[in-house]
Every structure is written in structure tokens, then in C-alpha cells.
Design brief:
381 residues; alpha/beta; TIM Barrel; 2 domains; 8-stranded parallel barrel; 11 strands; globular
């Protein structure tokens, strides 16, 4: 949420609450993940000097509507929005975004004690469809569990005990398939709203083709019900998956035959590939998105999507980092989805780059044997 609004934030600060007292002054560096307690005048001035160019320097080619992200040798990259809450939809018209690459539907489940009705789902998705048209918007079906936890509404009728390993438990598509009553309510609402705009849907945390087929079967059931009721919807609504597990990444060529697009969640893909809990500060230094294994999986997904003729979107934090975004373009991705606040810097970085050089750098990165070697290679890029 803080990232989406451009607010500096640091998490995993350990015992900070015991060290900070009322009246203390804090300097929060969200980029470096550092919090300074009662900074000196010199430290404040140093940080202010570092921020001043970002605030005061005129941006090249700045205009009311940002220009498209096109490399100097003519490669177009779609810059899409990650939408956390509906308030962000009001910012879309002047953002210059090319659409919505990730609409988090979980917002409908929080701050309530019951399940959202189909009509409540429909109202939210209808607003999304109307706010984004004629652009496309991709709705991620319910993705809870793991480090996201479950809001009170979804605990109703559920066991009280916590899963021993929630990141490997009932989350994402697994939960939806276990509760088809909840899932179909959401699918019906998305289909109904698709009559008013270019909506697509994607299933999170997929690890097998069987899960895709089961979800698609429920979608067909929802379509049949709406036809009987005489309700309009887009019968050809596009379907995709979040590639977040090594299983999905390694089987991307097979999965692509049954889908209209991929969206890669680099945060979870990195976590599951490296067996590192990204919320555990004890192993935080081992969480490395530029690890050779992660890069090879990303390259494989991009290649599988290209061979199948379907788009592949990056939705994780890597997409919103200007340098990392360039590496992703070099690996073959032409759609990046990020928080609205991240888009201007990424767009400028792409416009200053050349695709040929990015592809050459990506090829060299894929030959590296360690994350340290990759960091050394990219340090001057």
C-alpha cells in the first residue's frame, strides 16, 4: 500500500518499537530499507541533498500525459498499473499507464465480518471496467493465505489453528478450488462486468495444469448460468495465470497452450525458487531476485510465451525498479506492471536505453554462475 502511494516505508525493523520513544525523530529511507533514529543535522542534509535532484530537476520530455516507453531503437514496452485500492483508479487518467496489469481483488474481503456478495464484487469490477476503458484491466482472483493471512470474513467456518507452513499451504487458487461457492461468486461478477470493458482474469499460485482446467471448468459453469439468466458478458474473456511457482515456470510451454497470457509474480517466484521466506529477517539476505536460477526461470517463461504468441507481464517488485526493469526487457518481457508511483522513473529508463544493448547484457547475465557475479556485471549498467 505504501509503495503504491509513493510513501517511504521499511518493514522487518526488529525491535525498533522498543527503541523509539514519543517525541523521537525518524528518518525513513524506503529505498535502502534504513531507519535513522534522531538523525544528526549532517545526516538530514545528506539525505535532503540526495532527494533534491529528484524533486527539482526537470524531467526530460515532461508533459501532462507521459510519453510511451519506447527504447531508442524502437522497442515498445507496455507500462501497466498494479492497483491496490479503488482510490488509485482516480489517478489513472493522468498517469500515462497502458492499462491495469494487476487488480488485487482481496481488498473486497478486508474490514468486514461476512463474505462479499456477488453484487458487491460486481460493483467493484464495474468501476474498474469503466475507469480503464478502452484499456485492458486484469483482475487477479482471490489470493489470500501465506504471508497475506486471512481476513475475518474468510475465517468464518474455517479451523482456528494456523497452518504450520502457510506459504506452502492453502492459498491462491488452492483456496478458491476448495471453496467453489466463494470462487464462482467472484467469477460471475467478473463476467458480468466484462460486458462494460476489456477485463481479463488470472489465477494465482498455480502449480499444475489440473488446477487451470478445474478453474476454467468453474468459469464455464458461471458462463452457462449467466446465459440462462439472460445476463450479458464477454464470452471470450481472456484467462491467464500468475507464474509464481517453479512448477509453473518450468511447465510454462505446456501451460501456455491453454491460456491467453502469463503474469509473473517475481516476489513469490524468487521465494519459492530459493526456499527463502521473504518475511523472515533471519534469511532476508538470501532473498536474491537476481539469482541465476531465478533469471533462468524468467528467461524460460518469456521464451515460452513468445513461442505460444501470448504476452508475458512482470508484476513483482523487480518491474518497478528502473535498473531491474531494463534487465527484464533484455530477458524478453515487453509488459511491466508496477505501482503508479514507480512508473515515471521506469519509463524514463526505458526511453534512454537500447534494446540491443539490453539483450546483450541479459545474455551475459544468464551466463553468470552466482548472484554476486551478476551484481558485479550490472554494477555499471
Amino acid at each position: 500500500m505504501a509503495q503504491a502511494l509513493g510513501i517511504p516505508a521499511v518493514v522487518g525493523a526488529g525491535d525498533a518499537s522498543r527503541r523509539v520513544s514519543t517525541g523521537d525523530r525518524l528518518l525513513v529511507d524506503g529505498r535502502a530499507g534504513v531507519v535513522l533514529l534522531n538523525p544528526s543535522a549532517e545526516e538530514e542534509e545528506a539525505y535532503a541533498a540526495g532527494l533534491r535532484p529528484r524533486r527539482e530537476a526537470p524531467e526530460e520530455g515532461r508533459s501532462p500525459i507521459p510519453r510511451p516507453a519506447v527504447t531508442r531503437d524502437g522497442a515498445r514496452v507496455a507500462i501497466l498499473a498494479n492497483i491496490v485500492n479503488d482510490q488509485e483508479l482516480d489517478l489513472l487518467p493522468l498517469s500515462g499507464m497502458d492499462g491495469v496489469g494487476l487488480y488485487r481483488s482481496e481488498q473486497l474481503y478486508f474490514n468486514r465480518r461476512d463474505f462479499p456478495s456477488e453484487e458487491e464484487h460486481y460493483a467493484g469490477y464495474l468501476r474498474l471496467a469503466r475507469a480503464t476503458r478502452p484499456m485492458a484491466a486484469i483482475i487477479r482472483t482471490l489470493d489470500l493465505g501465506g504471508d497475506r493471512g486471512f481476513p475475518p470474513a474468510l475465517r468464518l467456518g474455517q479451523p482456528e489453528e494456523r497452518e504450520p507452513n502457510p506459504t506452502l499451504g492453502v492459498r491462491g487458487i488452492r483456496f478458491s478450488l476448495e471453496r467453489p461457492d466463494i470462487f464462482k461468486r467472484q467469477l460471475r461478477a467478473i463476467l458480468r462486468a466484462s460486458a462494460e470493458g476489456d477485463l481479463a482474469l488470472m489465477y494465482p499460485m498455480v502449480s499444475s495444469l489440473e488446477e487451470v482446467r478445474e478453474a476454467q471448468a468453474l468459469l464455464e459453469e458461471a458462463k452457462a448460468e449467466l446465459r440462462e439468466e439472460g445476463r450479458p458478458f464477454n464470452g471470450a474473456i481472456r484467462q491467464g495465470i500468475m507464474v509464481e511457482t517453479p512448477a509453473a515456470a518450468l511447465c510454462a510451454d505446456r501451460l501456455a497452450r491453454h491460456l491467453d497470457f502469463f503474469a509473473v509474480g517475481t516476489n513469490d517466484l524468487t521465494q519459492y525458487t530459493l526456499a527463502v521466506d521473504r518475511s523472515n529477517k533471519g534469511v532476508a539476505d538470501r532473498y536474491e531476485p537476481l539469482h541465476p536460477a531465478v533469471l533462468r526461470l524468467l528467461h524460460g517463461v518469456a521464451r515460452a510465451a513468445r513461442s505460444a504468441g501470448i504476452p508475458a507481464i512482470i508484476c513483482g517488485e523487480l518491474a518497478g525498479d528502473p535498473k531491474s526493469a531494463l534487465y527484464l526487457v533484455g530477458l524478453g518481457f515487453r509488459s511491466l506492471s508496477m505501482a503508479l508511483a514507480k512508473a515515471p522513473a521506469v519509463r524514463r529508463a526505458i526511453c534512454r536505453s537500447e534494446l540491443a544493448q539490453l539483450e546483450e547484457l541479459a545474455a551475459a547475465m544468464l551466463e553468470c554462475e552466482s548472484a554476486r557475479e551478476i551484481r558485479a556485471l550490472t554494477r555499471g549498467s
